[in-house]
Amino acid sequence: MGMVSEFKEFALRGNVVDLAVGVVIGAAFGKIVASLVNDIIMPLVGNIVGGVNFNQLAFELQPASVDAAGAEVAAVLVKYGAFIQTIVDFTIVAFAIFMAVKVMNSLKRKRVEDPAAPAAPSEEVQLLTEIRDALKR
After folding, report:
1. Does residue 70 form part of some domain?
2. Domain residues for 108?
3. pLDDT tens-digit readout, 67-76
4. Would residue 136 count as lying in a domain?
5. Domain harbouring 103, CATH code
6. Of the chain's two ends, which shows fewer C-beta atoms within 10 Å, N or C?
């Protein structure tokens, strides 16, 4: 089998396509959650706690300066506000995934608990059963 046909078989396999779709949807969902947190939740939380902008919360380890050559050296910051926003992002994504898995598990359980009624035996099986019962008598 040539490499091209082997790759084609691999790429068109159902699991790979499902995985690709999942990655694309996951990336889009991540953007939605990031926007929800950055544009809606954190401004509300910041307003509630006194007008704090969490993106700008940082602890300065070293102030900005100018070196001997005249180039500006950026300040060294520990940006704990951005970290808090990332934790909120993660919590929302984790909760959404938890809820999706919970729904899927409950649907699976319902399918297992309510199995379909067994199919009626075919005419041949019914005839053979009648013959067997007649022979027993």
Report:
1. yes
2. 3-117
3. 888 889 889 9
4. no
5. 1.10.1200.120
6. C
Q: Which amino acid is at 25?
A: I
- In angstroms, how far is CA 136 from the centroid of its own chain? 61
- The 3-class secondary structure across the chain, one letter per residue, is CCHHHHHHHHHCCHHHHHHHHHHHHHHHHHHHHHHHHHHHHHHHHHHHCCCCCHHHCCEEEECCEECCCCCEECCEEECHHHHHHHHHHHHHHHHHHHHHHHHHHHHHHHHHHCCCCCCCCCHHHHHHHHHHHHHHC
Residues in the chain: 137
Residue 58 CB coordination number (10 Å): 15
| Number of separate domains in the chain | 1
Q: Which of 45, 66, 65, 67 has its CA nearest to residue 54?
A: 45
pLDDT tens-digit series, residues 1-32: 688 888 877 777 767 777 888 888 888 888 88
Rg (CA), the chain: 31
Beta-sheet pairing, 59-62 with 65-66: unpaired
Beta bridge partners of 120: none
